[in-house]
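Much of the work behind modern protein science is quiet bookkeeping, done one molecule at a time. The protein below has been through that process, and both of its lines are reproduced in full.
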Amino acid sequence: MATPTPVRKARAALLGLLILLLGMGGLLAYGVADGRAQWAPLLALDLEGGTQMVLAPQVEAGEQIDSEQLQQAVEIIRQRVDGSGVAEAEITTQGAENVVVSLPGVPDQRTRELIQASADMEFRPVLQTGVDIDYVENVLLAEDNEELTDEEAEAIEAEVDDAREEQDEEAARPEDFPEPEGEPQHNSDLNWITPELAADFENYSCSRDASVEERSSAEADEPMITCDPNSGATYLLGPVDVPGTLISDASFGSAQDRPGWVVHLSFDSEGTERFREASTRLNGFPQGDPRNQFAIVLDGHVISAPGMINPILDGNAQISGDFTEEDARNLAEQLRYGSLPISFSIESEQQISATLGQDQLRMGLLAGIIGLLLTAGYAIFQYRALALAVTIPSLIVVGVITWWAISLLGWTDGYRLSLAGIAGLILSIGLTADSFVVYFERIKDELREGRSLPGAVEAGWSRARRTILASKAVNVLAAVVLYLVAVGNVRGFAFTLGLTALIDVILVFLFTHPLMQVLARRKFFASGKRFSGLSADELGVDVLYRGAGRFARSNVVHSGAVEGETAAESVTGDSDNPARAARQDEVPDIPEDEWAQMTIAERRRAREERSRASGAMADQAQEEVR
C-alpha cells in the first residue's frame, strides 16, 4: 500500500523542523567558534551587572534646565540606547540635572559615542572644503589606529603627501583674502566668507577632543567652521538650512540599483518645505563643486556631507556612498535620534554589580523547572502515553528553539535576558501546554463522533488550528502593545512572551500535528490500547454501534490505516459487528483519505448509495437484453 498523503506531509514538516534546528544550531556554533557569540543567553543588568555613567548637562554660565527638558533628554537617550541594540538598559534622572545611564556589561565604543552625541543636529550647506593634514598624520595614521586597513592607510598617506607639496607653511592672514562682493542672498552664497573667516578656515585644526562649546559656538544664522573627525576633512559651512528637529524618521537598507548600503531620511511637513528649497538650490551647482554638498552636523562635527544629485521635493531623501552595513546603521541612528534639547558629557563612569544577583537567577530557573515538571506531570496524568510521545518531546523542542533564539539575538542584536524575561518564559510553558490541550481535546471529540483515529486527527486539526492561531494572535498582540508602551524590564517580559508565542505556532505546525499524523497509523494508538490516552475507558464513552441498528449515546471507533492490519481487522468490536462490513473496497469511488475521516453512518450511506447505483445499472442492463 502506498504511503498515505498525510504521512508524507508529516514527514516533510518534521524534516523542515530538523533543518530549522540544524540551521540555528550551526549558526550559533559558528558564532561561538568565531568568538562573537556564546551558547548561553546574555544576561541583563539585574542579573549580571554592568556600567553606570552619570551624564552632566552642558549649559552656558547662568543658565539652568527645567524638568521638561531633562525628561525629553532622558527619552531620546533611551531611544538611542535601545536603537543601538543594547537591551534592558536603565536611564533615569539624578537630582534636578544629571542623567544616569546603566548598561549591562561593558558598552562598546560605538554605544559610548552614541550616548555622548547629544547636541542639536543641523543641516548646513557646504561653502568650502579642505583637509587637516596634521590631524590625518597624527590621529588617523597613528600606529595604534586599528580601524584602518593597510590599503586604506596607504591611500591616505598618498593623499597626505600630495597635500604637503601644495601646503603653505605660513599661517593665513585676513589680508590675504578679498572682501565679499555684497550681502549674501542665500545660505550657499560665498559672500558669507569674510577675510577673517577665510583665514580662520585655512588655519583651522581638526580635533576629536574639542569641547561641545568649542564645536557648537556658531549661531544658526551664521556660518561655521568644523571638520569630520573620522576623515580629517575640514568644512566651511553656511547657516542652517534645516534643523534636526524636523526629521520624522531615518532608516537604512541595501541599495536597489547597485551593491552597498543606503540611508533613508524623511522630514515632517515643515522640514519637507525647507529641504525642498535647500536641495533645489544645491542641485543648481555642478557635481564636484563643494556647494553641491550639504553637511549633517551633530555635536558640532560633520558626520556626513553628501552631494545633491536631484532636488528632494517630497521630503524623502536617500543618502548613498561607500557605506558598510555598520556605517549605514550608525548614520541612521544618529539621524533618527540626533536632536536633543541639551548637550551632555560623561561626568563619571563606574562598574556596578548585579541589582538582583545569582540567587534570584537560580530561583527564577528553579521556578521554571517546577512549572515544567508540573505541566509534564499533568499531561501524563491526563493523556497517558500520548503525553509521553507528543507533549514532552514538544516541550523539549520548544525549549531548545527558544534557548538558541535568545542566544542568537544576543549575538546579532545585543538582546539580554532579565529576570522579567525569564518570567515571560515561565509563563509561556503554560501557554504552550494550552495548544496541546486544545488539539488533543478536539481529537477526542472527533473520536466520540465515530471517526477513526487518522480521520479524527485530520478533522480535529482543522478545528483546533483556528483556535490555536486565534489564541496565539491575541498573545502576540498583547506582547506587542506591552512592548511599545512599556520601558525597562517590562519590555523584556513582553519580548519573551511574544517570541515564545511565535515559536509555539512553529512547533504546533512543524512538530505536534505531524507527529500525531504519524502516531495515528501506529497500532498502539489507532486500536485504542489501554493507557494510550485514546481508549474507550480513558475517553469515558462506549462504542456507538451495537448492531442491528442499535446505537449508544456516543462511541469510539479505532480504524483506518494501521500498519500491519486491514481495514476490517482494525475495527474495534466483537467478531460479528456489522461495522466490519463498512469496508472501503466496496466503495472504490471514495479516496482513502476521505474514507478515513468518515463516520460509520457516513460509510453506511456511501455503501447503500453504491449498492443502489449498482442495482439500477443491473436493472437497466436486463431491460436492454429483453
